[in-house]
Every structure is written in structure tokens, then in C-alpha cells.
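Schema walk-through. Below, the input block comes first and the output block second. Nothing else is stored per chain. Lengths vary across the set, and this one has 74 residues.
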Amino acid sequence: MVKELRAAAGHDRVGSCAPTSPRKRACGGAAETIKGRLKRLDVLINNAGAMFGRRELTEDGIERTLALNHLAYF
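--- output ---
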């Protein structure tokens, strides 16, 4: 996706940063990474989604599909 966005933007100042899990701490880590890389952020695209075949809980005790699809970006 980054390659396509760079081509559409006409420059290489496009990047990505993805949390390693739907845990709030991982998302906060991604936010800190972005803050450390950039002086300013013009566009942010949040894109996450999955459906897990069996019920699982995250380390935070939240059902994994709910955590990733609805809560991770807060």
C-alpha cells in the first residue's frame, strides 16, 4: 500500500507504522513511533480489521475481534 500511495502522491514522503497487536499498549507504542519520526502529520489512515474463527481474549481481557476492529485505534 505504501508503494501505491507514494506513486499517487508523487513523492516518497509516505510511510507506515503498524502496531504489533490490538493491545492498547501496542497502539500507544505505534503513536510514540510516529511522533518520534515526524515533525507533523498531514494524513493518517487507520485501517485494521479481522475476524477470528474462534473466541479469544487479548492480554487485556478483551475479545480479540472487538479489540482489533473497534477499540485498537482509540
